[in-house]
Design a protein that fits this description.
Largest interface: A-B, 135 and 136 residues
Oligomer: homodimer
CATH topology of the largest domain in chain A: Molybdenum Cofactor Biosythetic Enzyme, Chain A
CATH architecture of the largest domain in chain A: 3-Layer(aba) Sandwich
Strand content of chain A: 25-35%
Number of domains of chain A: 4
Distance between the termini of chain A: 69 Å
CATH class of the largest domain in chain A: Alpha Beta
Number of helices of chain A: 8
Amino acid sequence: MKNNINQKEISKGFKKYEPVSKASFKFFSAVEKLKITLRSESVLVTDSLDRVLAFDFKSPLDVPPFRRATMDGYAILSRDTMGASEIKPTLLKIMGRSNAGEKTSLKVKQGTAIAIATGAKIPKGADSVAMVEITSTNSEMVSIFKKIELGKNVARVGEDVQKGQVLIKKGTLLTSQDIAIMSSVGVNRISVYRKPRVAIFSTGNELVEPGSRLSESSVYESNRYMLSSLAKELGCEVIDMGICPDDKKSIQRRLKSALRHDIVIISGGSSVGSKDYVPEVINELGRPGVLVHGIAMRPGSPTALSIVDKTPIISAPGYPVSAYFAFFTFARPLIMKLLRTSDSHISTVDATITKTLQLSPRMRTFLRVKLDKKKQGNGFRYGAKPISATGASLLSTLTQSDGFTILDNKSVIKKGEKIHVITLRQGKNIEF
Amino acid sequence: MKNNINQKEISKGFKKYEPVSKASFKFFSAVEKLKITLRSESVLVTDSLDRVLAFDFKSPLDVPPFRRATMDGYAILSRDTMGASEIKPTLLKIMGRSNAGEKTSLKVKQGTAIAIATGAKIPKGADSVAMVEITSTNSEMVSIFKKIELGKNVARVGEDVQKGQVLIKKGTLLTSQDIAIMSSVGVNRISVYRKPRVAIFSTGNELVEPGSRLSESSVYESNRYMLSSLAKELGCEVIDMGICPDDKKSIQRRLKSALRHDIVIISGGSSVGSKDYVPEVINELGRPGVLVHGIAMRPGSPTALSIVDKTPIISAPGYPVSAYFAFFTFARPLIMKLLRTSDSHISTVDATITKTLQLSPRMRTFLRVKLDKKKQGNGFRYGAKPISATGASLLSTLTQSDGFTILDNKSVIKKGEKIHVITLRQGKNIEF
């Protein structure tokens, strides 16, 4: 009977899984050679949250640009307070007041003081500020109950930031604090990389859009929405190219028009079934084509990584959990590479695994866990309970997890082992 | 001389700092009594990332809604493969094909098989799927080289999700995975809490807008932009009320019109200088007024927490770093409370402090640190190097930090102590 076997059909099964590290190396070194560059664009600083800075941000000025009081009190000469104490205060004549934002021509001389507000310019002559809490006053005189050190409560010119100093490095994913510091040096527009354009479509005759009626044997689309949302979270512009029927011509047409964007992500059709045309279509469409197909990761093994002309293509498996980890492992670093950032959008917590578990050796396993927070000393620690070792089709294993850990080529993980858990719900279980 | 002291002026200094826990309790228990409710609103599931779910999301259907193949292969009867092996395969007649998304009237009987694609409906009669990798075929017959267990590669009806099952709990900050699971059960619109409306203004005659010219003694506004961005990150709608001059009338007017929003945040004017009118204005404007003023935290001690009529007001200090921690400590949990979510938007890493440091006892210290990643076993660990114990005015101490740790009432932290670091730049230094 064996003679009758259709060899072509058999060879469609994955003969070999490429290790993740090798697959990544093949794909990313090929991507490197494409020299994809995103031009930069100018945006308002106030609109720059989560954008990636396209240049080293240097301060155009000193901060503070003038000597400034850091406390409310009295601008004085330090030496006037020599020997001052609770029972023998220094008594100084108040010559006026310097408020924040006001110019002042007042000068401080020996035996005098000028009332001053936080942030106000230090008047000429003064070298220190006595904070209001250690003084008492009638309207004309101020008593200072303590010796004031030279320079006390005075911010020097350029103490915070010097003109020309690099405040934020190129490639930084901008935070609210960055917005504040750019504003504080007077800048209201900056250059960031334009958003990578990611074209996403799904393949599958069984797929129907949520909100419509589910006919017999059909399935609601979910991957495309998940992948789109993940890409948007990483700062991409998503071009939603819908659901593509499972035939070569349609996939070819869809893929061809997707190729003018920066990245293409295809959900489904990447396995080895007779209707999984995606790798075939990719190879027919252009060079170099499929670089890797079949990766030693679980979930996610049917993932394919390709380049056609100048466009990287990630073919994510149709199973939602597999698609999630294909995105995590290949699309996320690809997007970061295009944006020239090393800010990885990941948060981890350290945890201890609560159960011994058998794993597939020679595989990368994405083990989903539930976290259990326990008090420890004045802090806390986490127990990580595996929620399911399998179930690539079961989206609920992802939504019900608090995070996952990455285990490479291990045949077993033992109860009590320490792991890094990448969190799936930011800030859940963390209180401060 | 002491008799001449103006007691009123002296009392303007903070006589006492309220511990953070006590300040929080006073403020949040008063907020609780206001029973602020955000109505819910309907949004597209695809637009629901980072919104907070306003109800328990229950599945309207079983998933899968029909028995489904989880592998490409052949739908068969398990008992037909009894005794099958590499050298003695079971031979079955192929009666047709069941593709994903197609209806089928085919039936599997003893001695027959139906070719089936992943996701396709299992034909009547079949109880298992032999995966393609362990078969060979010519167009009419398939050889199966292994015994197939009953139910193998078949997803049962409701195996992933049962109709009526709660898939996502009320109060969840929605993720891309949540979007996927909601889509997968056919739902395209859901109810989320409307965005809390946060009115933000700054006080200070010294403040000028970035992008304009800096006159002598003036300072560029930065806090308002930082606070706005932080509020937006937490899912708020921000009403930017600009810069308010340092006079009672102006502050009064500005605050009055801010009060019709859900939360008011004021930057500056909350200290004890003679131009710090904010607490005074709040108390004059309505009941109960200022609840806490002066908090045992560093930076951030001049923070004031108030309620006027039904609106909580957070007065953040004018120093940017103080303002950041005032937001973190009071505005962030307030926003979470309004949104009825416990997802705290925080990520932490465990680290070891690299330097012994003196602290202010009876204070909460927000110690900013730089993280240094070191390999350890097959994972890594972090060293945390304090970058500055002081410097509330120095925004750069915040932007150059990787995170901060919270130390309560400690007079010293010793080199080697373990701490939880709340990260300021998500995913920096983390590679996977």
